[in-house]
Design brief:
Alpha-Beta Plaits; 6 helices; alpha+beta
Amino acid sequence: MGANAAVSPEMVTLRIDDKEVCVPKGTNLIEAAKTVGIEIPHYCYHPHLSVPGNCRMCQVKVEGAPKLMIGCHSIAQEGMTVRTHHTSQEVVDAQAATLEFILINHPLDCTVCDQAGHCKLQDYHYEYNARPSRFIENKVHKPKAKPLGPTVMLDAERCIMCTRCIRFCDEITQTSELGMINRGDRSEITISDGRELNNALSGTVVDLCPVGALTHKE
């Protein structure tokens, strides 16, 4: 299979963490890495949604590039050599710094979170040696139990603004109930005026959320 893939004009061959990878042209580095069992950490990326590139967690080192690149927006190229957090300390340090920034305002409530044990934020926090945020500013407080519709609740303090839920409603259901207000650490997911999240697939946003900010209403 490897030999046939390498000669196909529709495939490209590259190396990720010293493993040879053959993938179709147009494949991004997150998906390319998956084919050889390598998971590149990410939050905002989802294979069935558009690619915003806003969480910066999926940084990788590409040989010859002047700086680290994000795997979700970087397309596999013939002959490319890529290093992930498994083989590059520079990538580890960058991802740890990104994670630390994300945790500035995230509540320390893992023990009562519905996503505990299945949370990518929790998983990566421990993978990167559970380094606490060094920012000493008071956390920004937001609504803890905000109904978005008849079946979905938002804990705005847990939200890391990955925008998966917004993109799902814009691109999959095409109902566009959700949006974002404010800027910086005051940013918050909100429901459009006069509307509620009640489309036929609204419960799917709970499964898409990587950190337990969205839950089913009890």
